[in-house]
Write a structure and sequence with these properties.
Oligomer: single chain
Shape: globular
Number of helices: 5
Number of strands: 4
Structural class: mainly alpha
Strand order of the largest sheet: 1-2
Order of helices and strands: EHEHEHHEH
Radius of gyration: 15 Å
Helix content: 25-40%
Mean pLDDT: 84
Amino acid sequence: MGHSFGGAFVQLLLDAGYGSAGVSIDGAPVKGVKALPFSEIKATFPVLKNPADKSRAVPITEKEFHYAFTNNLTEEESKAVYDRYSVAVSGRILFQGGFAAVTPHAATTYNFANDHCRGLPPSGLAAPVGP
């Protein structure tokens, strides 16, 4: 079971034969999913805007955190969550996922014809990030 990139990992593990069932909750898109909502681009842009971020962890601001993760909370409630749980974002995982469509042999390549995974719908098609 996984959410966001955890959901993409669920799909990739099932595709590789590691498991017989899995749950991808609004999984990040794997290679082959063309849908990329503007809200996802905006949520990941603080990391993707700088190519040097590919190999480092990138802290995000309270405002960026609120948009990407706690947009259903007030700014005051969001700040409390940010202060307690915010950690730097892995640049590598966002670059691998964000540029999978144009990367040969991308880390997130998924075999959509795999009959073993037929019950798991493609990721990235659920409710978008953001308000």
